[in-house]
Write a structure and sequence with these properties.
- It is a single chain.
- By secondary structure, the chain is mainly β.
- It has a single domain, classed as Beta Barrel (Lipocalin).
- It is built from 1 helix and 10 strands.
- A 10-stranded antiparallel barrel has the order 1-2-3-4-5-6-7-8-9-10.
- The longest helix is centred in the first third of the chain and has 5 residues.
Length: 145
């Protein structure tokens, strides 16, 4: 089993492809994502550029800090408060609230991400999102260096 090392995986450039599905499993949006990470031993930034299938381009810059051997915190302009992450073996779990524009209105959604890294170095992220405790859908993305 590989151990998930956030700094090693996200340093430099990664690219990914993914989709958003509603709670019935229907794919409602697809995207490509490019990340560029710059880290030292305890902190860093991760810049994400999403290119959506409808032409929208979305940018997010995370500021990440290691809070213990296996725990991380993260902030981004559209994240409410602080995201928290924990590494357990080959999985990194993130929990955060993200503000997303839906039909012209800003809404907050709770995200629970599980990022799994394979022996070959591919990382798959499965994120469940909800509002008021109701599961609304999932985001699935596969990343490679």
């Amino acid at each position: 089993m590989a151990t998930f090392d956030l700094i090693t995986f996200f340093s430099g450039q990664t690219q990914g492809s993914g989709f958003v599905q509603d709670r019935s499993g229907k794919i409602i949006r697809t995207f490509e994502v490019l990340t560029v990470g710059t880290f030292d031993d305890e902190s860093g930034t991760l810049k994400e550029t999403f290119t959506w299938n409808d032409g929208e381009i979305e940018n997010r810059t995370w500021t990440l800090n290691r809070t213990s051997e296996t725990e991380w915190s993260g902030r981004a302009p559209d994240v409410v408060g602080v995201a928290s992450g924990v590494v357990i073996g080959d999985v990194l779990r993130w929990s955060y609230t993200l503000t997303i524009k839906v039909e012209g209105k800003k809404m907050n959604f709770k995200f629970d991400d599980q990022m799994w890294i394979s022996k070959t170095g591919t990382m798959v992220n499965h994120a469940k999102f909800s509002k008021f405790g109701v599961h609304l859908g999932d985001v699935v993305v596969s990343f490679s260096k």
